[in-house]
Amino acid sequence: MKKTLCIISILFVSFVYGQKSEGDILRKEGAIDDAIKAYKKDFVSNPSNSKNTYNLACAYALIYIQKDSAYHYLNIALKNDYSLWVLADNDLISLTNDIRWKNIEVQQLKKYQEKNGNIKQPEYAIQLLRLIMKDQALDYQMDLAKTYFMKNGKAPHWYYPIAQMKQDIASNNFNKMDSLISQYGWPTYSMVGKLAADAPLLIINHHESDEVRKKYLAQIKNACITNEGSCMEYAKIQDRILVNSNQPQIYGMQFRYNDKRVLEPFPIENPEFVDQRRSKIGLEPLKNYLKRKINYDWNIVQKEK
Asked: Whole-model pTM above 0.90?
């Protein structure tokens, strides 16, 4: 059981919603068909709500068999969207083996560069965004497994094959990432943009081997302190290495389930100074992070030295 809890804790990535609509609530419960009906109802009453329209497209993509509907609403939602997030959104992974996906990639990259300036390595960026999408694949199903565990105190039987598939994806992604880094070099914000530059960090963090994390830790830390990479992901990877070797973490980024089946941070070294350490790499106070991330109340008074 302990192993099950750790696997779920590591692989689970929670959904972060703002104002939850009826569709959002139904989707989170796993009622996709009902969520689609709710999103469509909101679309009819307010077609200019691009967030709802995007969520409707994602819901259609999640059931895999109604790609035409997914593409229909996705194109509407992206009309005034200039970001690259859609190219990394795992909700849409079922659409990527369709010829229409290439058009989405070209369209969004063009719009992004028109607004933000040219990316130095656009093809590298696209390939990294694809890796992010694959890395996060099955997270929706993992979220449902987490909800089941919270209610029943055990993992559902269908969690185990999904967890194995996640590990297989992580292994394949790592091989692809390693090849890309050999070809293009370590990706930085100025080279591929912030979102794409996170790809190796996610893949390395999700790899089963700590030796991989240790191998790249110096590069990841250097990118963080030179403002060319994510300090959030650096902190997660550093803490995971420590936790996996039974040492206290230093940033508070790794969680476990306690005996009440509630997520809490693994033990932290000198916890009264954790915010000082986090501040040095630009992270928010741990109290704020834990409340937002896992709804955990962190009450240790902070000090400085």
From this structure: no
